[in-house]
Amino acid sequence: SCQSKALEESITFTDCKENFYKCAQKGLAADIVWLGKKLKVQELLLDQLIPMAKNGLEKLNISFSDIQLYINETIYPRVLNGQNGSHWQRAYIGCHGRDFQGMSQRYWEQQKENIPVHSWSI
Q: Residues 19, 48: contact at Cβ < 8 Å?
């Protein structure tokens, strides 16, 4: 789509600031205001921002394999299932208690196997 002005000119500072804090507190479950509409940040990312980023990378002639790896295989699935590093850590503590050594060990094992964080088991 063709935009008449840059995105950063279309978002008020107040909305930007409030969205920032909502996302910091609620993560992908945050309800935000985007271009005058209320929506979930996860929905915004999946439906608008990730496709926009992918399109921009393609226009910059970024390699298909890099776009595939970082957008299609890493960012999109992570946003889709809602599991990032902090979400996984909270889920681990919820399941295993305050076993930080065990959490670090599990973190390291899954990282060592090059498993993307959105696929990590607790």
A: no
Distance CA 6, CA 32 (A): 19
Which residues are CB-neighbours of 67 under 8 A, at least 6 positions away? 54, 57, 58
Provide the CA 113 distance to its chain's centre, in angstroms.
Answer: 21
Q: Yes or no: say if 28 and 45 are a contact pair by the CB < 8 Å rule.
A: yes
* pTM for this model (two decimals): 0.80
Distances in Å between the Cα of 69 and the Cα atoms of 64, 66, 85, 116 are 9, 5, 18, 11
What are the tens digits of pLDDT across the range 73-89?
999 999 999 998 888 99
Rounded to whole angstroms, the Cα distance separating 91 from 108 reads 16
